[in-house]
Recover the amino acids of this structure.
């Protein structure tokens, strides 16, 4: 059972969105001790959530950072996750500068977000690869070659 390319991309996008939102929730909880933010901080949090969702969608569909997902080794995947998180932090920094967001997001919360997201995303991607390999273990993944030979 081989999924169509768009379905595979959509599943990886959903995995990335879940990891990013879980990391954001955990980092907000670690920094502020609660998930609910007050007034202006709540608006900044909404900007960050929207920016992260747009960046994850852009990185998964336009740039396609997940190309070769099943072929990468653990260290290669960790490098991809690190660069992915650098792009997310750069996107948040550009948002803060471009929109003159006040108050600016907590730097400590963004540091927590980056560290937690690298850990969660690395673990979830390893689990997703293991699950996909377990589901496809009985199937033959190679393509058949048909040769047509004519005499003469």
């Amino acid at each position: 059972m081989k999924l169509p390319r768009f379905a595979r991309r959509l599943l990886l996008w959903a995995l990335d969105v879940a990891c990013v939102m879980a990391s954001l929730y955990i980092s907000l909880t670690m920094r502020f001790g609660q998930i609910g933010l007050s007034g202006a901080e709540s608006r900044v949090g909404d900007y960050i959530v929207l920016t992260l969702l747009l960046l994850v969608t852009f990185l998964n569909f336009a740039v396609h950072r997940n190309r070769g997902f099943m072929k990468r080794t653990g260290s290669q995947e960790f490098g991809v996750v690190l660069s992915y998180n650098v792009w997310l932090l750069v996107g948040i920094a550009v948002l803060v500068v471009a929109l003159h967001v006040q108050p600016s997001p907590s730097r400590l919360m963004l540091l927590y977000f980056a560290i937690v997201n690298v850990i969660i995303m690395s673990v979830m991607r390893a689990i997703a690869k293991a699950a996909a390999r377990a589901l496809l273990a009985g199937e033959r993944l190679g393509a058949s070659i048909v040769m047509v030979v004519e005499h003469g």
Remarks:
- The chain has a mean pLDDT of 81.
- Helices lie at 5-32, 39-62, 74-99, 107-135.
- DSSP finds four helices and no strands in the chain.
